[in-house]
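Work Package 3 (structural annotation) set out to generate three-dimensional models for the target panel prioritized at the project kickoff. During this period the team completed the workflow that converts sequence records into discrete structure tokens, so that structures can be stored uniformly alongside our sequence database. As a representative example, we reproduce one entry of 220 residues exactly as it appears in the project archive.
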Amino acid sequence: MSDSREQVLARIRTALADRPAGAADADPDAEVRRDCLVSHLAEDPATLIAVLAENLADYRAVVHRSTDRELPELIARLLAERGAGSLAVPADLPATWLAAVEDVRLVTDGAGLTAAQLDRVDSALTGCALAVAETGTIVLDAGAAQGRRVLTLVPDHHICVVRADQVVASLPRALPRLDPARPQTWISGPSATSDIELDRVEGVHGPRRLDVVLVADRTG
């Protein structure tokens, strides 16, 4: 036991041998200077959206491009192609998003809406908190136009609208914009899992199909 203890302590001493002078007396609350690279991308909107679209598609999400004007018709078309007869939406979803939707029963999110009720809903439509281009990830935090986490975990089809100004390059860019106290859902493609033989099964832990609508000007 004594030999093991000495080996551990010796390794610690070796690791600390090149620490800066006075490091032991440093203020523990002082800000640590970090000069590491926070993104590998050119952070212009066109590049971020292009990389996000490529990575989302790689995760088998279906990516669509749109403008604000085209968005209502696109949402209506996606629901029609899916044969959706019911749609779960956050209470604060922009009304313009649904302007072209017809013959679809709207189910508005709220405390009284149960998982069992949502299980009988065909599709869900939400916005997001932000999206990360490098990882092809969409983050929801129950904020504006998102509803509760259950809204996007139970229905088999999720349409998520991502605006150009919500796309960031990397995780280091994303984390400062998120509130860690909020209930977050991180999405990279439709829900999927694999067994030991790598047989992929989709829809186990969430939607089987994810449609992502990237909204930006055609020039952006």
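DSSP finds six helices and twelve strands in the chain.
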